Amino acid sequence: MWNRRYPQREQVVAEVEEAAAAKDKAFILLHGVNHDGKEEEELLGCVRVLPLPIKEDGRKMFEFGPYAVSPDAQGKGVGIALLEQVEAFAREHGAVALQIDVVNHRTDLFPYYGRRGFVKVGTHEFYSNFDVTAVTRPTHFVLLEKPL
For the chain, which terminus, N or C, has the lower number of CB atoms within 10 Å? Predict the structure, then answer.
């Protein structure tokens, strides 16, 4: 378990829960902090971080997502705090880059990630755990990557 405070923003506590079987996988959870510094029970955001297969050139990369921030916490630095934790976790585990898949319809997210150093490196077929025959318009993933 690892905690870090972000006093320059609305205070949050980051909690990295590493999977017991593999020390290079994690769920990062951000909880609110009240005025006396005690952790609130409200979950502000969360993200999953996983290693990708090592590239042919030996580069180690991580992917992250799903990446979510509570609607009430949006615009308060929680998403950036989560992303900072993802980057720190990946660096600590030897990664040289991060990747995320963003569905092509979420055009509002491309500027958000672009401002944080992510660039489009490709696209790939849409997949899901639910019945994709219910998808009513052309859908694919856009692969974004950021060097660390």
Answer: N
What is the C-alpha to C-alpha distance for residues 95 and 105, in angstroms, rounded to an integer? 29
Q: Do residues 6 and 81 lie in contact, with contact meaning Cβ atoms separated by under 8 Å?
A: yes
Does this model's pTM top 0.85? My answer is no
**Closest Cα partner for 24 from 79, 91, 78?**
91
Number of domains in the chain: 1
Q: Is the CA virtual torsion 25, 99, 83, 73 positive or negative?
A: negative
d(CA 62, CA 99) in angstroms, rounded, equals: 6
Residue 98 belongs to domain spanning: 3-147
Per-residue model confidence (pLDDT) at position 9 = 38
Tens digits of per-residue pLDDT, 25-81?
777 777 765 545 555 567 788 888 889 888 888 889 999 988 888 888 888 888 888
Cα-Cα-Cα-Cα torsion 102, 104, 107, 113, nearest 10 degrees, comes to 30
Spatial distance between the Cα atoms of 130 and 21, rounded to a whole number of angstroms: 27
The span from the CA of 5 to the CA of 14, in Å, is: 7
CATH number at residue 38: 3.40.630.30
